[in-house]
Design goal:
The protein is 24% helix and 26% strand. The chain contains eleven helices and 24 strands. The longest helix has 13 residues. It is α/β, with parallel strands linked by helices. The protein has a five-stranded parallel beta sheet with strand order 4-3-2-8-19, with helices on one face. A five-stranded parallel beta sheet has the order 10-17-11-12-13, covered by helices on one side. It folds into three domains: 174 residues, FAD/NAD(P)-binding domain (3-Layer(bba) Sandwich), CATH 3.50.50; 116 residues, FAD/NAD(P)-binding domain, CATH 3.50.50; 114 residues, Enolase-like, domain 1 (2-Layer Sandwich). The protein is globular. 46% of the residues are buried.
């Protein structure tokens, strides 16, 4: 039996950052990370292994941070946790003793109950090196590809495969728009138009009722009776928290079936913490349970968990998940943080919305200038920022992070109106029409 002060289960972003943070916060403690796969891939890079990256090998998560911090790696599948003995057992028969444990077991692809989903050339989005190595050539060599699910991953797969200019690609999405859970419809349309420019077919408001073929897929059948020829299918219908270890160990689960955690990421066992996709998420504003599974959220949680193992720190706590996303679609950068206008209204918030349209260079005739569209959602009576959306050039990727920070700090429209920012002709919009400021001003004018 091996003994460690701190044991982390999981080799994804939450596991790696949890282990490194735990070691930095507790330099005198021994830390071990247990992961199933010898090679870990970068989850966010998976859609880009078909063209932007030349191979799956170019999307490997390096172990340098673990090695530099003296964290021992055990390559084995964790099969059980004994809370009385305070041990983790592995598939190789090994037992590892812990003082403190972080579960960062991640998530598994959700496979919708579609007849034929088990046929050949039907792929899920797995964070597994060997699986991706076999999936890559199969998709590249296919001709007709149907992607079931029009969220971020489905859209990014479609955009990347479309760059190869050799596939007939169709996205099937049950909601009225692609990216519909993260953006208002007019923002969704911007992404849809970009995909259509690349030749991607879009079927929204549709469901796949059956995957046809003998041993291998040949077509998919939609709920309107239409059949789409297909020699490959990508199931991109979301993920489910991997909670088996926690359940078997008797840890409590939350309402959305993630591992229950408090604001310090501590589970129902005071010596066990959980972070990342496997941990329960609660909305920053409503405290309702939300199914957000993002590497950025996972690493934020892992830093909180790793810091709180031996002493709970008020300054290291999770006040809720704001669900902040960004993506790239054929030259269009898009970001969303927390509530959209439509989701806020559905939850009965009394809101005021500010909009802005500008360009991200000044003067706007500079080469490489892009249009920027911003929407900010504020509480009508408190003036607090509830959410925001951005679409434009690459600057949108950092603008949404500014908005995300403003949401976390409960910034008001008045504070955003007087935001002090650095501006430079090649790098930002003009200070006179900085989009976040002008969107806040637009909301302010409606509040008066």
């Amino acid at each position: 039996m091996k003994d460690f002060n701190i044991v982390v289960i999981g080799g994804g972003p939450a596991g790696v950052i949890g282990a490194i943070t735990a070691k930095k916060a507790n330099k005198d403690k021994s830390v071990c990370l247990i992961r199933k796969d010898a090679i870990s891939v970068i989850p966010c890079g998976i859609p880009y292994i078909f063209n932007s990256l030349n191979s799956v090998e170019e999307n490997i998560m390096p172990d340098g941070g673990l090695d530099a911090n003296g964290i021992e790696k055990i390559i084995a599948e964790a099969t059980s946790i004994d809370r009385n003995e305070k041990t983790v057992s592995t598939a190789t028969g090994e037992k590892i003793r812990y003082e403190k444990l972080i579960i960062a077991a991640g998530s598994d692809p959700f496979v919708p109950p579609i007849p034929g989903a088990d046929k050949g050339n039907v792929f899920t989005i797995q964070k597994n090196f060997e699986y991706l190595k076999s999936m890559r050539p199969a998709l590249i060599d296919s001709k007709d590809i149907v992607i079931i699910g029009g969220g971020f991953i489905g859209v990014e797969f479609a955009e990347e495969l479309a760059k190869l200019k050799k596939h007939n690609i169709t996205i099937v999405e049950m909601l009225p728009n692609l990216l519909g859970t993260a953006f208002d419809s007019d923002f969704c349309t911007l992404a849809e138009d970009k995909l259509k420019e690349m030749g991607v077919n879009i079927s929204t408001g549709s469901k796949v009722t059956e995957i046809l073929g003998d041993s291998k897929v040949t077509a998919v059948k939609l709920d309107n009776g239409k059949e789409l020829r297909s020699d490959a299918v990508i199931l991109s219908a979301g993920s489910k928290a991997n909670t088996k270890l926690a359940e078997d160990a008797g840890l409590e689960l939350g309402r959305s079936k993630g591992i229950w955690v408090d604001e310090h990421l501590q589970t129902s066992d005071p010596d066990i913490f959980a972070a990342g996709d496997c941990a329960e998420k609660r909305c920053f504003f409503t405290r309702k349970h939300i199914p957000v599974m993002l590497a950025s959220t996972a690493t934020a949680e892992a830093r909180i968990a790793g810091s709180n193992l031996y002493k709970l720190q008020v300054i290291r706590e999770n006040k809720g998940t704001i669900a902040i996303f960004s993506t790239w679609v054929n030259g269009l950068a898009m970001g969303s943080a927390s509530m959209t206008e439509s989701s806020a209204r559905k939850q009965n918030f009394d809101i005021v919305v500010g909009n802005s349209n500008a360009v991200d260079h000044h003067p706007g005739k500079l080469p490489g200038t892009s249009k920027v569209k911003i929407r900010l959602v504020f509480s009508k009576y408190s003036g607090i920022l509830l959410g925001g959306q951005v679409a434009g050039g690459v600057s949108a990727g950092e603008m949404i992070n500014i908005i995300g920070l403003a949401i976390q700090k409960r910034v008001s429209f008045a504070e955003l109106e007087t935001l002090q920012m650095a501006t430079q002709p090649w790098l930002t919009a003009a200070p006179t029409i900085y989009p976040i400021v002008t969107a806040a001003q637009d909301a302010s004018s409606k509040m008066r």
